[in-house]
Design goal:
The structure is a single chain. This protein is 39% helix and 26% strand. The chain is α/β, with parallel strands linked by helices. The strands form 2 sheets. It has a 6-stranded mixed β-sheet with strand order 5-4-1-2-3-12, sandwiched between helices. A 6-stranded mixed β-sheet has the order 8-7-6-9-11-10, with helices on both faces. Strand 1 and strand 2 form a beta hairpin. Helix 1 runs parallel beside helix 2 and helix 5 crosses helix 8. The longest helix has 25 residues. The radius of gyration is 19 Å and the shape is globular.
Amino acid sequence: MKTLILTIDCGSNSNKYLISLYQKKILKILNKGSFVHQLKKEENIKKYEEKMVKFIQNIKKIIKSIISDSKIDQILALAVGTEFYRDNKPSTKKITEINEECLNDIDTKFKIITQEEESYYSNKAVEFFFSNYVVLDLGGASTEITVKNEDNYKKFFYKFGCLSQTNEYKFIQDFINFYSQMKDIELILIGGSFISSLFSIRKIKNPQKFFYTLKTKQIQKFYKSIANLEDKELIEKYPPLKDRTESVKKALDFLIHLLEELKKEKVTISLATLLEGLTIHLLELNKLELSKIISENKFRKDIK
């Protein structure tokens, strides 16, 4: 029995999708894509709607292609909205309506999730590979940190993201104090800005694994090299940073502060994100056992 799974993450800075195929306890990652909209900053509804329509059309086309090549027994789908959608502003309601209308075209429901739920789903992907960890998930407007040390859990939620207009990071001090009392546990980063930075630093074009290590010195050197570059020059030099120049600079400035405070010499960047976590959640809901996750990465393509 073959199951096609579609998960979509509608965030404050970008929308992302993941298409996977499940069979015989194995989950194959087939395709990932995204588009940057910066709703948190711009709230350009017309521009967003145009991009969202193209986004859904692209997903529809890929799913149709997969179905034509392979017999699919069922399709599971879920789209979620994170921090941007957690208020009741008229513009937010309008964008939610746009999402619901577009997603209806691919028979996918839209669910607004809390920070607690976002943390829970993101961690599902990491927990498949690690028993103990500290996960920092940085989005456009919120940050979730989860510490799992044996059977103990501790969570930290902040209304700060890579689109936040602040250079003041005192809010993270409670986490720094907590972490300093622990034995050294791997720090794992989730977020589009971190992934774009990783691809730029390591010059990765076709990722073959889910986790990569970066040294703090590498991150510091890279940030120093891009901090004062204009957008055009930055994109020419580092194509993965297209549409993310501002968010990447903020994310790295924040990250360097944190790593220096924690005295960490290296950090792990995760390519497994909320999308993979939602996929595992859908498998669990449908009582489908998972033993292995692999990435075929055949169709990877970003939405322009």
